[in-house]
Amino acid sequence: MKQTLSAKHVLIGFMTIALSLLLTANFGLYFQGKNIQNSVHESAQVEAQKELFSAIDHNFQSIDQQLKKLAEWDEIHQQLNQPSYYYYWRDQRLKESEYFQPYYIELDLYQADKVKLSHLVKDHAQSTEVLPKQLNSQARYFLIQPPNQDYLIVSRAVHSRQDPSQVIGYVAIAIDFFKLLQQDNQFYYLDFPYLHFNRSGFIGMHQLKDALEYRAISNPVSDNLWGLIEEFVIKFALIIFLTTLLVFGFIKLIFLGPLQKLSRFVQNLRHYTQTNSSQEKPEFVLAEYQNLQNQLSDYHHALLKAQAQLSHQNQQLWQISRTDPLTEVFNRRAFDDAWQALLKQYTSQPIPIAYLLFDCDHFKALNDTYGHQVGDELIKISAQTLQRSFPAGQHIYRIGGDEFASIVVDKNIEEVEQIAQKALSDLISYPFIQLDIKEKVSFSVGVGYANAKQAIENIEVLPRQADIAMYKAKHSPHNKVHFYQHEHDTINQSLVSNKRLNQVLNAAYSGQNICLHYQPILNIETHAIYYEALVRLEFDDETVFPSDIFTIIAHHRLEVELDQKILNHLLSQLQNKSLPANIGLSVNISAKTLLQPFVIDLFEPFLPYLKLHKIVIEVTESVLIEHIQDVSFVLNKLRRQGFLIALDDFGSGYSSIRYLANMPVDIVKFDMTLTHALSADLKTQRLIQATAHMIREAGYELVMEGVETQQQLEQATLAGATNIQGYFIGRPHYKPIAPGQVA
Questions:
Q1: Is 0.85 topped by the overall pTM?
Q2: Residues 412-448: tens digit of each pLDDT
Q3: 169: which strand partners?
Q4: Eight-class DSSP state of 467
Q5: How far out from the chain centre does Cα 557 lie?
Q6: Spatial distance between the Cα atoms of 610 and 622, rounded to a whole number of angstroms
Q7: d(Cα 405, Cα 397) in Å, to the nearest integer?
Q8: DSSP 707-734
Q9: Whole-angstrom distance, CA of residue 300 vs CA of residue 306
Q10: What's the distance, Cα to Cα, between the start and end of the chain in Å?
């Protein structure tokens, strides 16, 4: 079942998504502003870097010029050559000269071996000792000694004037680097007070840019703008949140709340199953909700009223569907329901059960002799008499034409016999002479009985046992109430063969192992052929023939199931094109199948194949005579759809010429007994020939079965047969073959 959501959950989900989207947009604006600020800051940082590095390059060039002038100054040369007054010169004369700059911290001279000159002069005053005692190999480097002692150390060689290639000494300066930068440069982007080194010790010139920490001067406009953006984002987020709460509250108050009340109102309607019941109705602000509630309430009352009427009608229809219209006792459907319910109950609560089967002896002959109206009256009287003779609450079921059944529970075998004997006595004592029936009307009763101690599976075979007992009772001249005994299974040996029984039942239920063999039917004049489909059961070690199949099927009342499987098998062969095109096919259908309400539907899938195949439905003579009114409508409809109807086994039973004119058939098939009788005496031959001639004159096709010799072929032709069937023409084969071919 598809999962549904409540309106509350949908609203919460919608508001959550909307709030999330608005907040996402809001914070997107925030991050966009942040990105702009970062971009401005990065741009300022780049400009500050350019400004700083440009100033450093400019100052380094200026220092190089200053060092060059110092290296050429006469007094420097004089002090290197004669340093007697070096300290006086350095501390007095030098600092008063134009060469000593304000950002110089110390200036000192070094000999050619890079040793500090002041350490070689005796009686010198104490030096500041910023410059090292001996110069290293680098002419320019930094000496960082926190806090606030950052020195730029630069040096330059002094060459002899007589021999420029000769170095006579070195001049070195310790410079206040940051003072130099601040004094000689104007910074617009660099935040100079923040400028500092991020490490201490000796720093080479190649490390200068990495060792400096700097930042750009903050932009008041950008900072103020960013502050405004942050304030806007926070306020907007708060407004979004409060607006969402207000919208949610409004929707809940105006729409969701009333909808929930209306939903509870509808749910509560389920508890009011009486049309005059009422419940408290909630009040709504919106008129549409109020109108909807009133309409639902009115609809509910109308629905309850209609439901009550429908329930009453369903009860009537249920009763009608379970009642036989002729006798007004329960029908086969009601019996099947009662039997299935009893089977389920019996598995948990075993009790004695008796299955009683009643049948009118020679009913068909009586019906043929006195007509259907008398036959119907006989069945009605039998049903009413049985119902009166049974104990109160005991039901009688009409399960066939003249067959009635009853289920007696929780009675011992003596009590069951008393019930059966009383019912039989009431039946045979009824004055049927009132119906102008001159013969004695007799009945037979078959009983299958299982006590509570017997195995549970015994209950399922009670109908078959009652059937066998009924057969025994019909053939008994005196004992017309017969209980099933195990020795009765010898009535038909196929029923005691578990292997054969299981084979046939499995085929009827599953359709497995069913095989159709086809026997040709030859038209004498045109030599056209169509084939009769004959059922077989094929197994690895044997083939089961119709004599065994239909005996078991009849005893288990599985004619409909077997017919369905045979038709399905034939249809699959047509669909798979296993059968040659343009051949005719004939198939036998049982009486019970023709009486089913869905019989037309069984043949509907065959309609597309009527263009390529002649399809004949064979029905036995006894079926048409016993149920002519019931099956005529069905057969006529099938004929209108294009099917042909054949009357099978004509002459094998009560063949009645007076019925033939009203039978909805196209083909009459003489039973092989009539075909073989053509070889009998002249009187019999003439009688059969006259019957055949009459049938042909009436417009029917005539098929003679059982033609096995050349003589029988000639006699059948002489008698007027239009088609012949038999071993002389062709034996049944698993696929259609032409007459004369080896099967």
A1: no
A2: 889 999 999 999 999 888 998 888 887 788 899 999 8
A3: 111, 158
A4: H
A5: 38
A6: 27
A7: 5
A8: --SHHHHHHHHHHT-SEEESTTT---BS
A9: 10
A10: 58
